Every structure is written in structure tokens, then in C-alpha cells.
Amino acid sequence: MKGAIIQFEPVLGETERNIDKIVSEIKNLDADFVVLPELATSGYLFLSMDEVRPFALKPDDEKLKPIYEAAYQKNTMVVLGFPELADDKVYNSSIAILPDGKFYVYRKTHLFFKEKDAFLPGDTGFFVFDYLGVKFGMMICFDWFYPESARVLAKKGAEVLLHVSNLVLPGMAQKGMVVRSMENRVFSFTANRIGREEKGEISLKFTGMSQVVSPKGEVLSRAAEDLEEIIHIEFNPEEALNKNITELNDIFKDRRPEFYEGLCD
Ligand code: ACM
């Protein structure tokens, strides 16, 4: 299977320009799927729901049609973050658009910092879907900080984690996702953005270093901190089906939930 990541710098509030950029990059790919950053259509730094609402889109919004079209033409699944309009509320969401126009939407579970003022906490929970015979699960940026996110996806059978991100804590998630991949024996594709956004006293620098990690915790590819970059990688998703660390240790069968009391209260 061939996967790709597009690391780029979305421009705050420039939905059409960002979508044009995404589509032109997809046109150069040769991949079964491609992962883009969190809030890739809108940029990141919104301080209230009223501020983000004009840029929020429904999953079948006309403005997203060029991406559906590119997914169809390139026969690739496109996964990207966008502010999702639902009634008049907004979620920080990720959409997986399949070549046939089918889509899945995940709404970010763990909101980071000022996102709490701009978005509703996600209500979809973590789910797994099938594409080309492989099980995929989505998570968004700060979800990585909660080991439960990746663990639930892996327990539901995910072989590949699609981690759309706008990471700002230098290098931390890049290290953390190595552990998430290793402890769950899954591939992870972390698509991060680059650049800086500022509003009032808040200034955020995004850390780039998008990466692909194997079920053994090997970093198969990592982009630069501050350059637009495309990662292309060929991998065997079946490697994620082997949960044995040694012949005597299956990481899931060896769990002792009877001693994990208090974890989920
Ligand atoms: C983040 O969750 N965007 C840091």
C-alpha cells in the first residue's frame, strides 16, 4: 500500500486558496491515500465560535467538491482536517474522502487550549473503517496526548492511524506517536503543518516534522521542521496485525484489565 502526507502552510481564513493548494498537491501524488494537517482548509487560530463559523463547512459542502473530484481522479483517499458546520455549531473535524465519494467524519475528542472557545468537543468517538481491505482510524492532534485514543482505535482493529495535526509543543507528539505506534503495533501517519499564526497576545509556531511510524516504532520517514514537503511511503499494513512482541507476548492478550480499575472514571 502507498501512503502520503502533505505538509504545508494553510493560510488563516483563506478557504478557497487552501483548497486550491491541496488539490494541486494531490494531483502530483501517486498514493492509495494521503493525509493532510488539522484545519487544513481554514488555518488554525480562531478564538471563538463566531470567528470560525464563516469558515466552517458541511462535509458535502460545494467548496470541498474539488477535493472529492481529485480523490476520484487520482483514485486516492484524502484525509484532512476542517472546521465542520453542524446546525450552527462548529466541530474541529477530520474527513476521509474515498474515491467513490463516500466519506467518514471524526470530530476531535480532546480540544487543545483556545480550541475550547471555538469548537464543541467531538461526539463521534473513535471509530475504524475499511478501505482497500485495510482498517483505518482517525485522530486529531492533541488526541495523541491521551494514550486511550490510539489504544481504542487499535483495540477496534485499526492498522493505520491517520493523525491530522497542527502541533505546537516542539517535537513532543513526534516522540509520543513513536510510542503510540509501538505500544499498539500500528502504523501512524502524523500530518503536521508549518508556519506561524498570531492573534493579539497569542503566537503559535507549528512544528512540522510530519512523520510515518511503523508498528515497531521505527520512524520510516520524517519531514523538515519548516519546509513544505510531501512524504511518499510504501508499506505493508499486514505488519500491524502481528501483536506479538515475543512469541510469548501478545500485547492485547497480555493486558490485565482487572488491575486497570480507576482508568476510565
Ligand atoms: C493541537 O491539538 N492542535 C495542538
In a few lines, what is going on in this structure?
This protein is of the alpha/beta class and 265 residues long. It has six helices and 16 strands.
Bound ions, cofactors and other small molecules, one mention each: acetamide
Q: Give the rounded overall mean pLDDT.
A: 97
- Tell me what portion of residues adopts beta-strand conformation: 25-35%
CATH architecture annotation name = 4-Layer Sandwich
In CATH, what is the homologous superfamily? Carbon-nitrogen hydrolase
How would you characterize this protein structure?
The chain has a single domain, classed as Carbon-nitrogen hydrolase (Nitrilase/N-carbamoyl-D-aminoacid amidohydrolase), CATH 3.60.110. It is globular, with a radius of gyration of 18 Å. Helix 1 (15-26) packs parallel to helix 3 and helix 5 runs parallel beside helix 6 (172-184). With 265 residues, it is α/β, with parallel strands linked by helices. It is 20% helix and 30% strand. The protein contains six helices and 16 strands. It starts with a strand and ends in a 15-residue tail after the last strand. The mean pLDDT is 97. Strand 3 (77-86) and strand 4 (89-97) form a beta hairpin. The protein has helices at 15-26, 49-52, 65-74, 115-118, 147-155, 172-184, and strands at residues 2-7, 33-35, 77-86, 89-97, 103-107, 128-131, 134-140, 160-164, 187-191, 196-199, 202-205, 211-213, 219-222, 229-234, 244-246, 249-250. The strands form four sheets. The chain has a six-stranded mixed sheet. Strands 6-7-8-9-12-13 form a six-stranded mixed sheet, covered by helices on one side. The longest helix is centred in the last third of the chain and has 13 residues, at 172-184. It binds acetamide. Acetamide (ACM) binds next to loops.
